[in-house]
Amino acid sequence: MNRSAYQRMIDGVTAHPWRTISGLLALAMLVLVLAWDWNWFKRPVVRQVEARTGREFRIDGNLDVDLGWAPLIRAEALRFGNAEWARQPVMASVDRLEFRIALGPLFGGEVRIPELRLSKPRLNLETGPDGGGNWEFGSDDDGDGLRLRRIWIDDGRLRFLDAANGTRIAVALTSRSPERAGGAPPVALRGGGQWRGSDFRIEGHAESPLELQHSQRPFRIDLQATAGTTRAHARGSLVDPLRLHDFDLQLALTGEDLADLYPLIGIATPPTPLYSLDGRFTREDATWHYDNFTGEVGDSDLAGDASVDTAGERPYLRAELVSNRLDFDDLAGFIGGGPAASDGSRNSNAGLIPDTPYRLEKLRGMDADVRLRAERVDAPGWPINDMDAHLLLEGGVLRLDPLDFGVAEGRMRSTIRMDAREDTIGTRADIAARALDLSQLLPDVELAQNAVGKVSGDISLTGSGNSLAQMLGSSDGDVAFGMGRGRISNLLMEIAGLDLAEIIKFTLTEDRQIPVRCAFGDFAVENGVMTARALAFDSSDTILVGEGEINLREETLDLLIRPRPKDRSLLSLRAPLVIDGTFSDPDIRPDLARVGLRGAIALTLGSIAPPAALLATLELGPGEDSGCGGEYAE
Q1: What is residue 273's three-state secondary structure?
Q2: Which residues make Cβ contacts (< 8 Å) with residue 430, sequence separation at least 6?
Q3: 559: how many CB neighbours lie within 10 A of its CB?
Q4: Residue 165: phi, psi to the nearest 5?
Q5: What is the 3-state secondary structure (H, E, C) of 102-118?
Q6: Are 418 and 581 contacting, i.e. CB atoms less than 8 angstroms apart?
Q7: What are the tens digits of pLDDT across the range 177-218?
Q8: Which residues in 193-206 are b (16+ Cβ under 10 Å) and which e?
């Protein structure tokens, strides 16, 4: 530079000093901006995060800032370390992070981030050996100075592991457009895994993940899950969802068998047919509630309230259930039968009495207090009207007290106790039947449809075995029933007495009813075999006296009924009736081998009377001739 040029520059600076300084500062800032590398700030940022969280933090990609009133900050390849005990070394990672920060609020000590965008974030959540989570770290600072309004997730992945409870969840997350302008974008999710060791799938949408940072604020969800044939639809809100601390959900459940819920929630139920339920699902401390639910189980409607208390040694189920119309077939699982198949058929056993074993771990694994009331019971072929059952289960001991049925306009009340504390269940059953209508007890016998009489009885049995068939097949005790005065078809009694002349007469003319003086049966039960001690049916026309056995173990019949018509008839065969076969296929026929021996055998029945123990069960009614039995001649 020659002296004249240099002198002119000095004169310019001297004449306009502030303009010259401003120019130099602008030039310096331009050079600074062109040469600035924001990656210089990575190390201070990393040190701050690690100091606050106690975890390793890395920024392996670029850090860049677009200046402005709300600077845009971009960072790539971020990695956040996991807890020392965790199985994965990285708790969170993201390929690219973008967010803007408002400069104005910074002067007031508030960090306001209008929007955060995450590309391919990965989050691994895990519960630890002490019950805590890897999301707990750092200082007790609650972060009230941070305000994050919206978060957008592109191709996110969330994994949750609770190894102690057999739970592994992996879901994909993607942000959806918010329902209202300026709102936090919700996320759509899809995935699955294992819940308590059972495979499941889940999909739906939930509120913005930002709401998870407020553990006391409701977090809204609408999710559908599938585990095998079980489907659940939950919609409502959670509080502290990572711990399932509290929630208020409307929960719909459908599936092929309520027993399938046992591995999912640890609550044992008997096998059932197809079911569909919908109710309010909440939690209060250690108690889970399913209230005001309605739905169907098989062909039965079901409604009520249920709760499970998990604070004790075993889960405690309490329920009040009501059915306006209960299909009796749907109760098969409660007595050891199999549930209905999808086509309505049932799994059959070799015999009529169910032989499906009860699961001991279910009876021992929980306690229960359940009441079920059915206003009406549909039981084709059985005259059952209504039901009231109270189930109590405690420490492996189950009681049904009562198991009360309305039967044939009377009542049948049972008390059943099953002790499952040993490997073989010990059972005691006491059943009292009172005032059952005779005609309704024989609905398929046309000649008995107009019969009049009240039947009562008592059953007391003890047995052992892990199925209903085994219990009855080993049972000991007593079975007794009786009926007092009534009326029955004369033709029916003539058929029973094989009086051909009278049968022809009442077939060609008109049948009439005749008085019944009494009927009774008294059986001793030993090792599953019922042996008749006294068995008789006494009408004004014919008396039937029986003997023989009923084998509950083999489900077979072996009874001999000796009819003695009280009137004379030349065509009266008076052959004994044989009742044999099986429970599912009984056979009733005359003993033809004895027909020709009528003149050679004199049957002296003498007098018959019910055992003293049966007198209290006889519905004798008022009037004369209310006794039973007595001397009569041929």
Answers
A1: coil
A2: 414, 415, 416, 458, 459, 460
A3: 19
A4: -110, 15
A5: CCHHHHHCCEEECCEEE
A6: no
A7: 777 666 678 889 899 888 777 788 989 988 776 655 555 566
A8: bbbeebebebebbb
pLDDT band at 475 (very low <50, low <70, confident <90, very high): very high
The string of pLDDT tens digits covering residues 384-420 is 888 899 999 998 999 998 889 888 888 989 999 999 9
How does pLDDT run across 62-92, given as a tens digit for each residue?
888 887 777 888 889 989 888 888 888 998 8
pLDDT at residue 303 in the model = 94
Tell me how far apart the alpha carbons of residues 38 and 542 are, in angstroms, rounded to a whole number.
Answer: 112
And the tokens for 247?
């929630």
Q: Is the dihedral of CA 182, 188, 194, 200 positive or negative?
A: positive
Under a CB-based contact definition with an 8 Å cutoff, are residues 143 and 136 in contact? no
> Across all residues in the chain, what is the average pLDDT?
75
Span 456-475, average pLDDT: 91
* Residue whose C-alpha is closest to residue 268's, from 314, 329, 322: 314
HEC secondary structure over 323-391 = ECCEEHHHHHHHHCCCCECCCCCECCCCCCCCCCCCCHHHHHCCEEEEEEEECCEECCCCCEEEEEEEE
Q: How far apart are the first and last CA of the chain?
A: 159
Helix or strand or coil: residue 494? helix
Residue 322 is predicted with a pLDDT of 94
Measured from the Cβ of residue 359, the count of other Cβ atoms closer than 10 Å reads 15
* Cα 296 versus chain centre, distance: 12
For strand 300-309 and strand 230-239, is the pairing parallel, antiparallel, or unpaired? unpaired
Residues 139 and 54: their CA atoms lie apart, in Å, by 9
Residues near 339 by beta carbon (within 8 Å), at least 6 away in sequence: 256, 257, 259, 271, 272, 273, 332, 333, 346, 347
Helix axes 17-35, 3-15, angle to 10 degrees: 100
Distance CA 124, CA 116 (A): 20
Q: CA 49 to CA 93: how far, in whole Å?
A: 14
Token code pair at residue 480: 């007794």
What is the biggest distance separating any 2 CA atoms in the chain, rounded to whole angstroms?
A: 166
Number of neighbours of residue 527 by Cβ within 10 angstroms? 12
User: Does 342 score more than 90 pLDDT?
Assistant: no
The residues pairing with 230 across neighbouring beta strands, listed in sequence order, are 227
DSSP state letter for 468: H
Residues 282-294: tens digit of each pLDDT: 888 888 899 999 9
> Among the residues of 395-538, which ranges form H helices?
438-441, 468-473, 490-496, 500-508
| Contacts (Cβ under 8 Å, ≥6 apart) of 450 | 439, 489, 513
